[in-house]
Amino acid sequence: MQKVSSEQIRDARNLLRIAGEEFCAMVGIGRRTLQRIEYDQDLMERTAYGTIMKIVETLEEAGVEFLTDGTVKKRSGGISSGGGSTP
């Protein structure tokens, strides 16, 4: 897995329009944990590798591609989320 940033995780979830609570349920983490990961790069780097892998895998399965330039894009053919608002 390539290194991903807090910003990429936040941008990927927002790109897919997956609400925070919905995403947390998909990944199996608490809302506060997601907020910390999305907004604190240092904390994200100290988060268990398995948790970050689950987040990245979930986003990739939903149709996001993490690019080496630090951005994300939506792949065609991804799984559609139920939508919802983001915080």
From TrEMBL:
Highest taxon of the source? Bacteria
Q: Which UniProt keywords apply?
A: Plasmid
Q: Which InterPro entries match?
A: Lambda_DNA-bd_dom_sf (IPR010982)
* Name this polypeptide is given: HTH cro/C1-type domain-containing protein
Whose protein is this, by species?
Skermanella cutis
